[in-house]
Amino acid sequence: METKNATELTEFVLTGLKYQSEWQIPLFLLFLIIYLITLIGNLGLIALICNDPHLHSPMYLFLGNLAFVDTWLSSTVTPNMLVNFFSKSKMISLSECKIQFFSFAICATTECFLLATMAYDRYVAICKPLLYPVIMTNRLCIRLLILSFLGGLSHAIIHNVFLLRLTFCNSIIIHHFYCDIIPLFKISCTDPSINYMMVLIFAGIIQIFTISVVLASYTLVLFTILKKKSMQGIRKTFSTCGAHLLSVSLYYGPLLFMYVLPGSAEENDQDMMDSLFYAVIIPFLNPIIYSLRNKKVIDSVTKMLKRNV
């Protein structure tokens, strides 16, 4: 119900992760190291792709953009979380809260589209190798990237516009380590049913569509590689596609439960663990997954080290 005579709140307190006081410094150092490795890994991968002509292909163009989005996503959430480990107030204004969620929503949605685009690229490369240069032209790749970022931007704008209808006067406590949309709904003194419905509809459509593209692409890839008689070709294909499938499965799991199947108010701790996984851990893991499972990337790193050491 709306509270007409209550004072509207414009500042909130992020409770952050729950931990005992003796874990404050170890957890801070742990997440600081994770964040630094995330930056080094993703920015290093981008630099490697830009500087090595052998990596100037659609697959690595999409991978470089995924690394950029992971860097952006982690930088939206982690620095503020690190500051709050030692901050006494942990205050954040409503405008800062909306900006943080807006940035996060762009990254999270864009990554969904990028993962689907990468799956389609692997389908064309493996199932239609002779037509690959004709289908995956530079123009198509740029269009797919633009559509991915526009999809992320549009999705973020929709939810931020609907946030304008909410007022906050019940509580200043946000049970999360960053400003996510579901915890905001839970402290709103305006009925957030419409907002919940919009999250369910748009997040559901985006995730169902992108997951369907990934599953369809890799189902066709699986049938194609099983027809091959060369064990070396099968191993190479599984190595390349396995990294992508691992990244997709790790990313979509918690995201699905957070927004398509949102939990109750009593499940704040589980929601935070899910958010921590896809907002902090996944950007940390992605460059490791794609680099260690990719021979071209390893060869490129080896050549670079030989030139400079």
UniProtKB/TrEMBL annotation:
It comes from the Eukaryota. Residues 41-290 form the G-protein coupled receptors family 1 profile domain. Its main location: membrane. InterPro entries: GPCR_Rhodpsn, GPCR_Rhodpsn_7TM, Olfact_rcpt. It is found in: Cell membrane. One of its GO terms (cellular component) is plasma membrane. Belongs to the G-protein coupled receptor 1 family. Putative odorant or sperm cell receptor. This is Olfactory receptor. It comes from Sus scrofa (Pig).
